[in-house]
Predict the 3D structure of the following.
Amino acid sequence: MPDSRKPLTRVAHEILEQHLEPGDLAIDATAGNGHDTLFLARAVAPGGSVYAFDIQPQALQQTRVRLEGEGVADRVTLFHAGHEAMMELVPESAHGHIAAVVFNLGYLPGSDKQTTTLTETTLEALQHSTTLLAPGGLLSVLAYRHHPGGWEESEAVGEFLGRLPGFRLEIRESPGPVLFVAHRDE
């Protein structure tokens, strides 16, 4: 029985730990303060790479500082762009070879709560993720529901992932966010 008191961010990391291996490629679709980016950079070492996206310069700066402080910045390529641009910006040689794509939706903690992920661009990025993922890859989406537009975005993500052919969907609920983990068939 899962521990319902465990934060879903930790649950997501535990699932990813079981999945990622040294040398893998991963995407952090929403870099934020860099916690997931750092986790991914450690999980794919040695030999792996991470591509991280964010639209806010403040988020990218905080992520860069975090990565440099931990000595893993050389494993990560940061993009000042929305996650919907991942098909264009992730090198074509990586298409179909990404082991995991991680989304942490909502807003950047400690910043302007008016700047949030948007349902339209999130769904576009999720669609791109299905093309970028390797067979057996996984999508991890942590959706926060208690900000303007958050509930609608969470519902749309659940509907999108639930209809994906060739994926098995796992959902973990909490009073706040919801975690969707979509496992691609081998």
Remarks:
- Residues 105 and 143 are 5 Å apart (CA to CA).
